[in-house]
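The passage that follows is intended for readers who have already worked through the single-chain material. We present the inputs for a multi-component assembly, then the predicted structure in tokenized form, and finally a short commentary. You are encouraged to pause after the input and sketch how you expect the pieces to fit together before reading on.
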Amino acid sequence: DAKTTQPPSMDCAEGRAANLPCNHSTISGNEYVYWYRQIHSQGPQYIIHGLKNNETNEMASLIITEDRKSSTLILPHATLRDTAVYYCIVCPGRRALTFGSGTRLQVQP
Amino acid sequence: EPEVTQTPSHQVTQMGQEVILRCVPISNHLYFYWYRQILGQKVEFLVSFYNNEISEKSEIFDDQFSVERPDGSNFTLKIRSTKLEDSAMYFCASSGLAGEETQYFGPGTRLLVL
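Having made your guess, compare it with the prediction:
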């Protein structure tokens, strides 16, 4: 079973920031928080990951709480092409990724 | 940007037939993975492979499945005798050495068993 909890769905207006929460209260010290997304039945697309510190790349920002029990993925300016299922996964790296049901993000025009 | 590629994109086969799904991982990656996604269900891990050995496998990966790295570039998944329930999208992924553990996925092969 997935070790993360995400809301099943969220809506966001185009051009606004999308903030996707994830709870991972049983995360271990050596586990990273990974975010992937899947558009229709395409292959999961890597977005970002982090261990303790907040991270930012060209796609998104990742905010991890100090106790590491939860995180938030931020898409700063959502577009229609960001409509997808977003998965939050905790994993020590190079191990099996356990996908849950994710959050279905619908970006509205 | 380097990417994982998979062939074929679609495969239709008869129950009981053998199929081989092919993947070309990112060139400097050394860890390889197969996942599958039955229509409408979650992405499920099948197997991971490193240094010509299986390093981890799930309960799904039974004796009907095998993996191989036949040469320096390809990574294959063989299903010996396909069943109807093997119909799914199959995704290959690869990752690198320390500091490059992120798994990057290919576009998938849609397998339909009739």
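Commentary: Strands of chain A lie at 9-13, 18-23, 32-38, 45-50, 55-56, 61-64, 70-75, 84-91, 103-108. Chain A touches chain B at residues 32, 34, 36, 38, 41-46, 49, 87, 93-101 (CB under 8 Å). How closely did your sketch match?
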